Amino acid sequence: MKNLKTTPRQLTFQLDTKSNNGNTDPRISYNKIPVMKSTFKAGLDQPVHRWFRLTPSFGPDLVREMLVSMNYKKGDTVLDPFAGASTTLIECALNGIDCFGFEINPFLHFVGSTCLNWSVDPSQLENLLCKVKNHFQTSLKFFSITDLGSGKLPIPKIHNPFRWWRKDVLYELVVLRETIKSIDCDKDEKNLLLLGLAAALVPDLTNVTLGRLQLHFIDRDNDNIEVWPTFERQIKEIIEDITTISHGPFGTASLYHTDATNPSIKVPNKANLVITSPPYPNRYSYVWNTRPHLYFLEIFDTPKQAGTLDMKTIGGTWGSATSSLAKGKVEADFPVIDKVVMPVARKIREQENGNLMANYMTKYFNLIGHQITAMEPFVSNDVRIAYVVGCSRLKGVYVETDVMLANLIEGLGLGYKVSSIERIRKRNSGKNLYETIVYASK
Q: Are both 236 and 265 inside the same structural domain?
């Protein structure tokens, strides 16, 4: 295993160590890990990790930190049931560690699968980039912006597409997408080209910026938006990285497009380490915030599909999920949920218009419980797990996610014992909102 090193642990930072019920939880510890090490920012200049930026992801440095803390040994297999942009899988594979993961979002599954394929010849990809450029420039002369929306240049079937993209920018983007689709090359090469286009899409080429919980539309009428140079930079980074890492050896990595709460797949080997980060209970939706990618790459072709998928996901409350969760009362699926979660849900429900968020939080922990239970056939009897989660406030009520998750893990009756609730940083969004690694083992 190469390059699996972490920096010395930072000085403990002084924070209130009392849990939400006023009692000090002896499992809580504090190990401050800088933002540049713990978040997506750590991957912005690291090979492969920089191919696609998913802002709420943890960073590769944190994966290494968790592997060391969990006493990784040669021959261990790692599972990430919430793969996201596949940070865990990429980092493990680069370090010669076998791994596999689950991802419900079809776009993020495409991102992860493509980022884990390093078999393409970089010189061939460079030649292909030149070919795409020539075809693209020729097509811009052959088509015109009036063709946008026709059968020749189909636009994304997202609600109000011209709010998402300036018409002249969308014209060039669609021409480039259609050029890539039509180019003569193998599937792996084409996927890397499409990945580069997807990576360039947000925020550089789309009328959005990423706020705290969702994409926000911004006025870009006077911006200088350059489609080809932005795309070309992305592909050149991919070429550079494949060239750099070509020596190996790598761990085997597989990413399955499946629901982690009910994975309908078979795997060759069980994992004895789990490193993951489920969505936080803060209404951030990975489906809703990948809408431009899902529709631009034609993975989705009806406006309702994003909302339908969001209904299935942990943490999804946008679109049709909002109206669904606003009705009735979501009950606990496990006895431990009734004990750990429902008292907090009742406090949220007491707030003005609090029923939606009380149902949202109950659904969130119900699905986490189902995920941990459904993971049993895929892990060994001596598995060690690390879940990165964030505390939240819903309707002004403190949701101490890390402590609640620790109690849920132990209370499911699967034989887990939580060893540490390690708070690694304070989140910027409010007092006592921590980002935490919950460690447990059987």
A: no
Structural domain boundaries enclosing 74: 28-46+56-107+259-283+318-441
Read off the amino acid at residue 433. Answer: L
pLDDT of 10 reads 36
Sequential DSSP letters for 184-215: ---HHHHHHHHHHHHHHHTTTTSSEEE-SSSE
Backbone angles phi, psi at 343, to 5 degrees: -60, -35
Distance of CA 366 to the CA centre of its chain: 20
| CB-count burial class (<10 Å; 0-12, 13-18, 19+) for 364 | buried
Query: Do the domain assignments include residue 359?
Result: yes
10-residue mean pLDDT profile of the chain (442 residues): values are 45 42 77 76 84 87 95 96 97 97 97 96 97 97 94 93 97 98 96 97 91 81 97 97 88 97 94 96 86 96 89 82 88 98 97 95 97 98 97 94 98 98 81 90 97
Q: In this predicted structure, what is the pLDDT of residue 43?
A: 66
Residue 43 and residue 57 in contact, taking contact as beta carbons nearer than 8 Å: yes
Q: Which residue, chain included where needed, has tokens 């390093």?
A: 118
Q: How far apart are CA 107 and CA 171, in angstroms?
A: 22
Asked if 434 and 324 sit in the same domain, the reply is yes
Question: Distance (Å, rounded) from C-alpha 113 to C-alpha 53?
Answer: 15
